[in-house]
Amino acid sequence: MAGKGNMIRPKKCNIVLVGESGVGKTKLIGQFCFSAFVDYDDPFICEDYIKQILLHNRVAYLDIAEPIGPVRELLSMWEYQMRNADAALLVYSITSLQSFERVSALWKEASALTGPAKQGGGDGELGSRGRRPIPICLVGNKSDCKVSREVSVEAGAQLAKELGCSFFETSAKDGTNVDEAFYTPLRAVDKDPTDDQEPVAVV
Length: 203
What we know:
single chain; alpha/beta; Rossmann fold
């Protein structure tokens, strides 16, 4: 019988959501953590959320951060969150072409903080000096707002291909693909070679 000394400590993972204000990052977190649509969003409040999940057949604690953005007064917070991230979601709204066009710039800003991608580390990963690369997922949120769509599914898939990352269109309102968007990059974090899950798909 295993003693207390043999108990496996739960793993802790940090994931960061990056995107323009108004794309629904807070609402995605609310749907993922509480299975609820939180119809409130204050762009000047930066909060961390903790969720217990099952990752590679082990209990893990997920720390979810939503940076307000690379604002001068909050630059140190932005840098800290990005440098300590294990995975990231790059979020835009399918109803905002502007937020979609900002994704590449946000990718570059994040890359500048985490460092160049590790050679041979895999597609869709950001890496920092002295750390392994981190997997990312491109997320086109508000897929329920089809009438107001400004960004096609094909455009999102093409950008994901160019960045070398996975891609999902999500709806924080009805929950479509929200879990998949979070779990896809997380499954690539310190993947256990004995784990029999399917490999992470790259669009």
